[in-house]
Amino acid sequence: MATSLSSMQPPACDDFRLKEHECVSASGGQLSMLFAALYIIAAGAGGIKANVSGFGSDQFDNSDPKEERAMVFFFNRFYFCISLGSLFAVTVLVYLQDNVGRGWGYGISAATMVAAMVILLAGTTRYRFRRPQGSPLTVLLRVMWRARRKRGLAYPEHVQELHGYEAATAPHTDRLR
């Protein structure tokens, strides 16, 4: 909206005005609109990045080998599509915004988001919803409490006495002590 409405944009600054330092800066309302848009984008991106992979993994049963393979397939395609979308955003959309108009670039992005929401809502009846068990805050506090209690413990003399040593997939090393 801020890029499509001329009232939300400061006047264009050509080369002559730029050399003479006569460019008009953005007004308070224009800056407010810009910062509000940036904060909305940040809140939306922060919300989806933290939740989409967890919601995707909830759709599969880890105890079933067939579904476990399907989950690997899903995440391979998911991250490939995320990367492809990023590539599209920094090439095609930037080209459209620079050469056709900013409204087109943002319009395509908005239409894509609406299509994604329609697809998401259309599949709502088929999704698996796992109820959260316990509070993440209590788990975090428990970890911090135990780490605080154990901070003064001495290292064991033998590596074999470390908890989980047998299950380690990488060999133990003293390089990071």
From TrEMBL:
<keyword id="KW-1133">Transmembrane helix</keyword>
<feature type="transmembrane region" description="Helical">
    <location>
        <begin position="78"/>
        <end position="97"/>
    </location>
</feature>
<keyword id="KW-0472">Membrane</keyword>
<dbReference type="GO" id="GO:0022857">
    <property type="term" value="F:transmembrane transporter activity"/>
</dbReference>
<comment type="similarity">
    <text>Belongs to the major facilitator superfamily. Proton-dependent oligopeptide transporter (POT/PTR) (TC 2.A.17) family.</text>
</comment>
<dbReference type="GO" id="GO:0016020">
    <property type="term" value="C:membrane"/>
</dbReference>
<dbReference type="InterPro" id="IPR036259">
    <property type="entry name" value="MFS_trans_sf"/>
</dbReference>
<feature type="transmembrane region" description="Helical">
    <location>
        <begin position="103"/>
        <end position="123"/>
    </location>
</feature>
<dbReference type="Pfam" id="PF00854">
    <property type="entry name" value="PTR2"/>
</dbReference>
<dbReference type="InterPro" id="IPR000109">
    <property type="entry name" value="POT_fam"/>
</dbReference>
<protein>
    <submittedName>
        <fullName>Nitrate transporter 1.3</fullName>
    </submittedName>
</protein>
<keyword id="KW-0812">Transmembrane</keyword>
